Amino acid sequence: MQTRTLRRRSRKTLLFTGGGGAGTQAMLRLLRGSYDVHFADADSDAKPYPVRSGSWHVIPMASAPEFIGQLRRLCRDLSVDVLVPGVDEELLPISRARDTLPCDVLLPSTGFIETHLDKLASHERLRARGLPTPATESLSDHRKIPFPCIVKPRRGRGSRDVAVVRAEDELRAHLVLCRRPPADFIVQELLEGQEYTVTVVADRGRILRAVVPVKVGIKRGITLRAETHHDDAVMAACTSIHAADPVAGCFNIQLFKTASGDVKPFEINPRISTTACLALAAGVDFVGCYLGGGRRDRRGLAAFRDGLRLRRSWHNQFLA
């Protein structure tokens, strides 16, 4: 990846894609004191209420031929310093074109993205590096994973088409309801314990700068109730994942810590997550960490506020 020299301005300009997401309002409030912040989305009606019109931009869908060209022009027109993609479908097109963009891109390497967007390939990559993961098989080959278990798409986000199934007939019924072929799915060991979603940040030199575990309370596709939790075992497991495959940028690890203390990652999202705003509120500026700034603890990681809780609600906007 080509490393760019950022413009020498007192305030950097950030552009987040997926700007209609659950974390946008918090990101704006927490970042605007330090950065000029802009948001882009393919849905023109998705603008959150607090985002000013001048900071809201409509871009094509990632599948559109003009997507990269229009995103490139937008980054140039806004003098963007750091582009922060937030939509799975955009990650590979942006990563493959990053050397043509006039800004830094807060994403891991293309190979890392390709691997972890595919949940079966992600599991196999972690296993090959000797890292613990839940038992995972393609649906067509599943033999060893007992019921109850998790069935989920190999590619997807937001818990879409994910279910706990307790018998073979439930599994087949799930496929019928989803209207997708068996090759699209994996079967995974059902883990029990405390779920965590962890923000991991490495700088442009691939040096680990932040690991922020968030203990999940309520999850409905996205995390609705959560709390930062300084758990040494969780942090050590995430540090090991980065050490086994060091990349620059920001990504998210979803894992369970079992009652016996085992830590097993079940999914890696190669982008920021909706709970990155909680890490930010807890004192970890993930953009600053990527750029090499911020205060660090004795391990070289950004310090964060322990026990900070997230409670998500909704703003209802009525338009004439």
Overall description:
The chain starts with 11 loop residues before the first strand and ends in a 9-residue tail after the last strand. Strand 1 (12-17), helix 1 and strand 2 form a beta-alpha-beta unit. It is globular and about 55 Å long. Helices cover 25% and strands 27% of the residues. It has a six-stranded antiparallel β-sheet. It has three domains: 12-105, Rossmann fold; 113-117 and 192-311, D-amino Acid Aminotransferase, Chain A, domain 1 (2-Layer Sandwich); 135-189, Dna Ligase, domain 1 (2-Layer Sandwich), CATH 3.30.1490. The chain contains nine helices and 15 strands. Helix 3 (88-96) runs antiparallel to helix 4 (110-117). With 320 residues, it is α/β, with parallel strands linked by helices.
In short:
With 320 residues, the chain is α/β, with parallel strands linked by helices. Helices cover 25% and strands 27% of the residues. It contains nine helices and 15 strands.
Mean pLDDT: 93
- What's the alpha carbon Rg, rounded to whole Å? 20 Å
What is the name of the CATH superfamily of the largest domain?
A: ATP-grasp fold, B domain
Overall tally of structural domains: 3
CATH class of the largest domain: Alpha Beta
Order of helices and strands: EHEEHEHEHHEEEHEEEEHEEHHE
What is the CATH fold-level name of the largest domain? D-amino Acid Aminotransferase, Chain A, domain 1
**Helical segment count:** 9
Strand content: 25-35%
Class from helix and strand fractions = alpha/beta
* Separation of the first and last Cα atoms: 47 Å
Short descriptors:
single chain; 320 residues; alpha/beta; Rossmann fold; D-amino Acid Aminotransferase, Chain A, domain 1; Dna Ligase, domain 1; six-stranded antiparallel sheet; five-stranded parallel sheet; 9 helices; 25% helix; globular
